[in-house]
Here is the input.
Amino acid sequence: MSAKILIVTGDAAESLEVLYPYQRLREEGYDVHIAAPARKKLRFVVHDFEPGFDTYTEKPGYTWPADLAFSEVDPGQYAALVVPGGRAPEYLRNDPELRKILKSFFDTDKPVAQICHGPLLTAAVGVLRGRRVTAYPALELDMQAAGATFQDAEAVVDGMLVSSRAWPDHSRWMREFLTVLRAKAPVT
Here is the structure.
């Protein structure tokens, strides 16, 4: 039986930041589940950069079903966690069930991959203090306020935590995460 990986997300998550790790980890042989506030069809978004805009734009993206509600997740059943970005982390950080899940992965020193605005979730549970991270560059001050050292890089590895800026950095992010994951929870 292959190791299970949990992706935590919700509506308005960045499509690529959910579906790329979902498919890449399945390709590698992991059993991947998506958890959200409720079992439902999630509506993702596409963030892109257009000339004349000071920040990214947002358009409707793919839809995808959540396998589990946060209240149904047993973190002990999972070898690792993926925390995508988009706008979902802005409201998900207020979910007490999700905060318990996040804390559990850090308390048991399991691999965690976070990208873009996903670090807003890990910051909300106080696990970034003293760590090196990256995130979407606009979150530099948020990461510093959480006690982390922000690095503007494609991927930053700090122990079991692998962070990345945004979807253009996917290849480096997943290469680094898979290195950590294969050492800690190889596919059997």
Remarks:
- The chain has six helices and eleven strands.
- The mean pLDDT is 97.
